């Protein structure tokens, strides 16, 4: 059993007017958004379509509606939709049209935050990595290559929504869209290239003629007619208001809790605090409050940003598995207890097949360079893993030496002649780190293999295209040489049958170290059970296995473990609340 603090929305005192979704322009004045001639006080909920499965969407939206929500807000995830330049994907979890139509089917409004830079604890802030190799590009400023690609994607999304008649002006559910995201936080870093970009982005968006207002969050000087909005926990107190008396007070992100990074203590926010800030914001003329997140969900695959956990906002009103909390009719909230029952143990060695990838030596590497290559630029973010190998000539009977490595991030495992000699890693606040280990050397040629690992790309800050990861400096005595290679795997796999009931399932990975898990070929995300919080336990032990990833029989579980975790301690557990 795991005791969990509970967040709920303290809105009992506020009366919400029922909504009928019909066509019509959306406009606004200083008091509110006006839809079909009616003023609206709106409660909005962030649910991100790729952080759950299409099979879960209807249930999540339905529960949000039962919770008194009028609007579902989502970002648009560029890197998911255009993983390769010009090759688009709108299928499965990327089926944004299906998601918006599900919102519409349940009679709710939608708020579409296109960005297309979104931050969102998403890998690279939602930018596809191929942008990095566009000649002359500088992201998010008055830079022609960036603006061209940003306009192209924004136009594509808007046209897609229009062709499906999804804007409220066409009878659809979308009442708001967002361009850029919290730009003011980085604007100064771009000097004279910042302000013209804000104006350009505003004009580009407005010219797309969606018939519904555009917002810029955390952008006090958002050009007319774009509405500047507030993000944060305390917008009731901190927001100085819109930059024109003719614009309404909108709160785009009121953080219900906060995202988690590996190795950091859990963060909780009391429902009373949320309720107080919401009431204060409404008292100060606020007419839209969005709960970020209402359902956080799962950072499947390699979609989490640097050091962010696979479970996202598990303490939101709907937990990672989509389960809601029970609370009484006041705003008092009972602390829900999560109940875990083991459905399947994987504790017999015969269940597993094990593969160990050989530790590559310099002589077998196909790619050579006489300097240390930048990690992301070399992997192109196709993999977390990059080997730096070199052959070190040692002419001495003294077998002791010291290996010193400086890395810009995020993790390093060092091997000498195939034997692990040390590991080190950074963290969310400081991705860079040093490794210093005594190593044994033999007289003659020694094979040094350094496995550099990224744990998601950064999602925030100016000049993301200039960020570096991987090894910066390697020393043994004074000889230095390096090269890189391919992926490295210690793989494990087992087959199992799904539990008969229709239940929420989590894979208990407490016995493992660090790696990634696939269920029938679909990655359920990275895990990192060996990175303990200051309290001495992993932040995340259970990893969500959505029902739609499973077959009734003969499911294949594949685990890539890069440390020395034991798969015999893994179990598939049923998650419920009492
Ligand atoms: C709920 O949990 C919080 C944090 O653990 C604790 O401070 C509070 O007393 C609990 N409330 C109840 C009613 O158990
Ligand atoms: C812009 O997007 C269209 C598809 O919407 C694509 O055909 C075109 O190649 C894109 N241009 C660039 C420069 O990416
Ligand atoms: C709220 O709106 C009223 C009427 O427009 C105005 O008088 C008042 O100053 C506004 N409150 C704040 C905090 O801006
Ligand atoms: C990335 O690699 C290219 C060549 O492949 C090189 O021109 C460029 O300078 C590198 N960028 C960084 C940031 O290392
Ligand atoms: C190292 O090995 C070489 C070749 O086997 C040998 O000639 C040399 O004496 C050895 N050096 C030491 C210090 O053991
Ligand atoms: C390093 O690799 C080379 C090439 O495979 C091999 O000849 C040599 O014995 C290795 N060195 C050690 C100390 O294992
Ligand atoms: C069973 O699964 C479906 C699809 O995921 C879901 O809609 C339904 O609510 C689930 N039923 C129960 C009893 O959990
Ligand atoms: C704008 C704002 O209110 N931001 C706050 C959001 O919540 C975090 C965590 O409590 C604060 O640190 C921010 O100042």
TrEMBL record:
What this protein is called in its record is: beta-galactosidase
Name the keywords, alphabetized. Answer: Apoplast, Glycoprotein, Glycosidase, Hydrolase, Secreted, Signal
Per the UniProt entry, the Enzyme Commission number(s) are 3.2.1.23
InterPro entries listed in its UniProt record? BetaGal_gal-bd (IPR048913), Galactose-bd-like_sf (IPR008979), GH (IPR017853), Gly_Hdrlase_35_cat (IPR031330), Glyco_hydro_35_CS (IPR019801), Glycoside_Hdrlase_35 (IPR001944)
Reactions catalysed, semicolon-separated, are: Hydrolysis of terminal non-reducing beta-D-galactose residues in beta-D-galactosides
What molecular function terms (GO) are annotated for this protein?
beta-galactosidase activity
GO cellular component terms, A-Z: apoplast
Task: Report the family membership.
Answer: Belongs to the glycosyl hydrolase 35 family.
Entry annotated with the keyword Repeat: no
Give one GO biological process term. Answer: carbohydrate metabolic process
**Where, subcellularly, is it found?**
Secreted, Extracellular space, Apoplast
Q: What class of enzyme is it?
A: hydrolase
What taxonomic lineage is listed for the species of origin? Eukaryota, Viridiplantae, Streptophyta, Embryophyta, Tracheophyta
Which region is the signal sequence?
A: 1-20
Q: Which residue intervals define the domain Beta-galactosidase galactose-binding in the entry?
A: 492-555
Looking at the record, the residues that make up the Glycoside hydrolase 35 catalytic domain are 32-323
